[in-house]
From TrEMBL, chains A, B:
CDD domains: HTH_LacI, PBP1_GntR. PANTHER family: LACI-RELATED TRANSCRIPTIONAL REPRESSOR, TRANSCRIPTIONAL REGULATOR. InterPro entries: HTH_LacI, LacI/GalR-like_sensor, Lambda_DNA-bd_dom_sf, Peripla_BP_I. PROSITE patterns: HTH_LACI_2 (PS50932). This is LacI family transcriptional regulator. It comes from the Bacteria. The keyword S-adenosyl-L-methionine does not apply.
DNA sequence: CTGAAAGCGCTTACAG
DNA sequence: CTGAAAGCGCTTACAG
């Protein structure tokens, strides 16, 4: 049960080389002779050697651990992006340390300390850090800090994402082009969703139209809020012709409620989502939504990390695409 | 930017004690004198010391890293459990290393190696490892291996979960008590869902009734399969009176399809889900489902780890509760 | 309650 | 292409 694991020294002895060479075999294979490599490989297989990366991290002062901090994971709009991030990072030889900061970010500081304790090569944040002290602390830290899913004016170090305000503007243009005239916004109370609502309102009123009506809901959003959103419509006169929802879950819940009340989507009421989750394409009617490319965010993050490690100076804001996916619901 | 981080030696010098004492302050605080602790605390604050846990892991041969291996995370039935697991583990001072094994488990061996490289204190698996070579390799490994969400006859080391067969049996009894007579099973092709279907069939036929009809769907399951499941019902004669779905997502999709076709749930067709996701309670009609207590699995896992660390010999199978949540849909 | 010393298992200039 | 030696930043018996 508790047999001690083999060390690099055992492998080197069996292969008839020094520990340095075995180390090079793992970390800089190009430099070791073919025949030597063969013998090392054999020795590794023979003893079942698995390198101790904690020792490696200490010796090289590079941990190859990346911390990914997310508000939650049970049902998060970030999950696609986080999955892509984990895939890409591990495929590139990193370990991913995941931490939950709570949907109110109350655990953020604690989780940052935990990440720093492991001497992670980078901290990847989903969502925006608003606390000034935390921002200041990370600003000049030796550890790379990457904010994703947003493009703040003044990132802590580097932000990889998109402007939620711009998403809102684009949504407003889309809604107008589709011929809708009385949009209603269902806005989860997160800074990002609020930014999108602001962008929508700015673009909508810029043409002289009256500001859209809006209804706040709690964040993170979920299916059940569709019911709330639908109830909110009952008293409105005139009734909106399109509801722009802060997430696909809300949109889905709203459609189910509308159907139960005998209201046809999109004929009587159009509905838009956000996030382009798989269910958006599967729902009946299919849900018009806005796609965020989680894999692109993940790839850009990897690339930024590599460029930074190579000593390059990076632009603080790396924009990533979003696109509106027109489907049946709006 | 790249200022070197302070080491324990700096703290000890400022506090006027040895490095050993500072180490004890962190790892065995009860043993250091109050006044000494006060001076150490001051020194820590002064220099902003954050211990290097990679060095600590190496020195103590205890990493306080736990690997959590999951098939996927974008939309997984395990997500509630995984979230609970991460919360509990980090609250107890562990770091959580997360890895994706793929829904076909094709990356499992690679991710196990990655975990062993970090000398994790435990590997927590969600789902069952079927590959014999992998099982054999982990069986006698010094690293703790915990299988969760299932209760196999012969766990690798320790299993914490419930019997899917028993869930199926309980579901059959529930369905019969509710007065349904022609159950139809929608079965994702995962070993767990198949076990539940087997349990259902066994309990159902034990009373002399004809075996339930069944339809396989791919795994992992998702909302869109509700459409598939509904189409599968069209040709059936007689039509089933209750559809037992492998997940709440399938149940939800099936209900949406049924409604679109003018079929009332549960009046004309009853539907059951599995997993008791939040949406089950929010759906219209609310979905009768089976609840798995992710927090209980997480807590039992922590407890097992602690008991094992204390040298206790644990029973190989630790059962965890499930319960049927009766709602409107069946 | 505290300190000096050895050691955890690697990596990396340096020299050849 | 390879090896010897120093060092990464901690922890932990051991002794007092």
């Amino acid at each position: 049960m508790s047999k001690r694991q083999p060390r690099i020294e055992e492998v080197s002895r069996i292969a008839g080389v020094s520990a340095s060479t075995v180390s090079r075999f793992f970390n800089n294979p190009g430099v070791v002779a073919d025949e030597t490599a063969r013998r090392i490989r054999e020795a590794i297989d023979q003893v079942g050697y698995v390198p101790n990366l904690n020792a490696g991290s200490l010796a090289s002062s590079r941990s190859r651990i990346i911390a990914v901090l997310v508000p939650d994971i049970a049902q998060s709009i970030f999950n696609d992006t986080v999955e892509a991030m984990i895939e890409e990072l591990t495929a590139h030889g990193n370990s991913v340390m995941i931490s939950l900061t709570g949907s109110d970010n109350s655990l953020l500081d604690r989780q940052i300390d935990a990440a720093l304790s492991r001497r992670v090569d980078a901290i990847i944040l989903t969502g925006v850090v608003t606390d000034a002290a935390t921002r200041a602390r990370l600003k000049n830290h030796a550890t790379a800090v990457i904010e994703t899913w947003a493009l703040p004016d003044d990132p802590i170090q580097i932000a990889i994402g998109f402007s939620h305000f711009a998403v809102g503007e684009a949504t407003a243009r889309f809604v107008r082009e589709r011929g809708y005239r009385r949009p209603h916004l269902v806005v989860p109370q997160s800074s990002r969703a609020i930014e999108r609502a602001n962008g929508f309102t700015a673009a909508w009123t810029a043409r002289g139209d009256e500001a859209p009506t809006a209804q706040p809901v709690s964040s993170p959003s979920h299916f059940g809020q569709g019911r709330l959103a639908f109830r909110g419509l009952a008293d409105m006169d005139p009734r909106p012709d399109v509801v722009v929802c802060g997430s696909d879950w809300i949109a889905q819940g709203l459609i189910v409620e509308a159907n139960a009340a005998g209201i046809r989507v999109p004929d009587t009421l159009a509905v838009m989502g956000f996030g382009n989750l798989r269910l958006a394409g599967d729902m009946r009617p299919t849900i018009t939504s806005i796609d965020i490319d989680g894999h692109q965010i993940a790839r850009e993050t990897i690339r930024a990390l590599q460029r930074k490690a190579a000593g390059e100076v990076l632009p603080p804001r790396l924009p990533v695409d979003f696109r509106i996916i027109a489907r049946e619901s709006a």
